[in-house]
């Protein structure tokens, strides 16, 4: 059950959209909220700053770095204050936290005491990045030990969630999260798997048996073919789904997520929100 939600805050339109999804889920689950903003040490200690130190002289560099830190801190506090104000408008209570470090790593660290991380697909530097998911969001998805909800820029109440199920451990965790989610929100759930014949029927039978005690409205679909990522993408788009539950996969003993080909394909191909289970 989701009772503590961590929302990444950076002042961008993507982060504001993510916050709205976080507010909606907090109300559905009766969950507490924490907004976290990370002052990026890469911005303070990156190659550009060091290049300036050589060009302008060390003393001037020290002053520049100090001023840069002050500006980033002030901006971050402003973002957090705005976040808290939006929470109050939504009649929600929230804590706010400012951290320092590598942004994705600090978000994962602060998520230790949360049940879910909510963040935008891209952050304040989105215009400098390519693809549907920014580098910070990708870093959090790959490193987080907690599930991550990746939100689009524009908030829209989901009406048709899709669970991708293949019986692997994290896929089973995604099914549990999807079951809790649709039970709390009153939404229907579609379960899809890509497998041939008896194998596919067995997977769907497992899912149906698992979901039955939750008393949720669910339907089960088996797809066949060799290109699982494209099959699921097309099914999502053709049937008007607007939220995906998927599992990542762990790589041996390395405590970092490694996105499976289907999960990574879907994140990059579909613009709606994702709930990615570790």
From TrEMBL:
List, for all copies, the residue spans of the domain called UspA. 1-151, 207-273
Known Gene3D superfamilies for this protein?
A: 3.40.50.12370
Q: Which family does it belong to?
A: Belongs to the universal stress protein A family.
Stated name of the protein? UspA domain-containing protein
| Organism (species) | hydrothermal vent metagenome
């Amino acid at each position: 059950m989701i009772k503590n939600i961590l929302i990444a805050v950076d002042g961008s339109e993507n982060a504001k959209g993510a916050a709205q999804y976080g507010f909606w889920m907090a109300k559905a689950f009766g969950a507490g909220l924490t907004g976290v903003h990370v002052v990026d040490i890469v911005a303070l200690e990156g190659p550009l700053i060091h290049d300036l130190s050589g060009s302008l002289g060390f003393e001037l560099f020290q002053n520049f770095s100090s001023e840069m830190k002050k500006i980033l801190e002030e901006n971050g506090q402003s973002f957090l204050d705005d976040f808290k104000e939006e929470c109050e408008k939504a009649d929600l209570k929230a804590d706010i936290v400012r951290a320092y470090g590598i942004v994705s790593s600090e978000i994962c660290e602060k998520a230790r005491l949360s049940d879910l991380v909510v963040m935008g697909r891209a952050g304040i530097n989105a215009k400098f990045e390519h693809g549907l998911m920014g580098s910070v969001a990708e870093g959090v998805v790959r490193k987080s030990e907690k599930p991550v909800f990746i939100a689009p820029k524009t908030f829209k109440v989901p009406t048709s969630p899709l669970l991708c199920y293949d019986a692997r451990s994290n896929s089973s965790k995604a099914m549990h999260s999807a079951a809790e989610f649709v039970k709390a929100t009153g939404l229907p759930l579609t379960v899809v798997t890509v497998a041939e014949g008896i194998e596919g029927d067995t997977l769907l039978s497992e899912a149906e048996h698992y979901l039955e005690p939750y008393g949720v409205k669910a339907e089960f679909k088996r797809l066949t073919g060799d290109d699982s990522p494209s099959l699921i993408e097309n099914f999502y788009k053709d049937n008007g789904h607007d939220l995906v539950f998927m599992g990542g996969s762990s790589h041996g003993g390395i405590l970092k997520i490694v996105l499976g080909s289907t999960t990574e394909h879907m994140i990059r191909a579909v613009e709606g929100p994702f709930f990615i289970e570790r």
